[in-house]
Amino acid sequence: MVAFRIVARLFGGGENAEFLLAKGMVTQLVVISLIGSGVNVALNLILIPLWLGVGAVIAGGLGNLVANILAWRLVFSVSRARIQVGFWTKMVAVSVAASVAVSFAKIGEGAILLLIQSTIFLAVVIGLLAVVKPIGTNDTSWFAKVSIGLVRMLKPFTSRVTEGGI
Q: Cβ contacts of residue 51 below 8 Å, gap of 6+?
């Protein structure tokens, strides 16, 4: 279930909507939202009777994914913005791996379980980010303009290879 939500956010739905609104493309944004909502409702009608809550999560995730991909394609066609595929692939892989690791932690219950699972998730994410190093040197030059402290903090997660978007 978590994987659907992560993949649905892959294309940055909120950021795409803000960009399209700033460009005055309200009609296109409304049409994209209606398509995504239509996919969500249609899949809810099919999947909820079969899988209950899991069906609702899948339907919502796929509806969001459709809307986000459509919005991303529109942003891509009207701007020079490019998605950094390598960065997002690594981030999704890390998030999914951490979610899977947490799903095996069944120690305790209630608040204790939540605390244990949160700690495991955070440790796995930090460890994997240090290994896959999703931040490229292009990103660190931008971060340096914001704060040199931010560059130092993100250094363990930065590769030495310059990564360009596509």
A: 58
What does the alpha-carbon distance between residue 49 and residue 55 come to, in Å, rounded to a whole number?
8
How far, in Å, CA of 3 to CA of 21, rounded?
A: 28
The answer to whether 96 and 121 are in contact (CB under 8 A) is no
Give residue-wise pLDDT tens across range 99-127: 888 888 888 888 888 899 899 999 999 99
Phi, psi angle pair for 135, to nearest 5°: -90, 125
Tell me which amino acid residue 143 is.
F
What are the extents of the domains in the chain? 2-78, 85-157
Q: List, in sequence order, every beta strand (DSSP E) within the chain.
A: none
pTM of the model: 0.55
Tens of pLDDT, residues 143-160: 788 788 888 888 898 887
> Whose CA is closest to 142, among 154, 125, 130, 126?
154
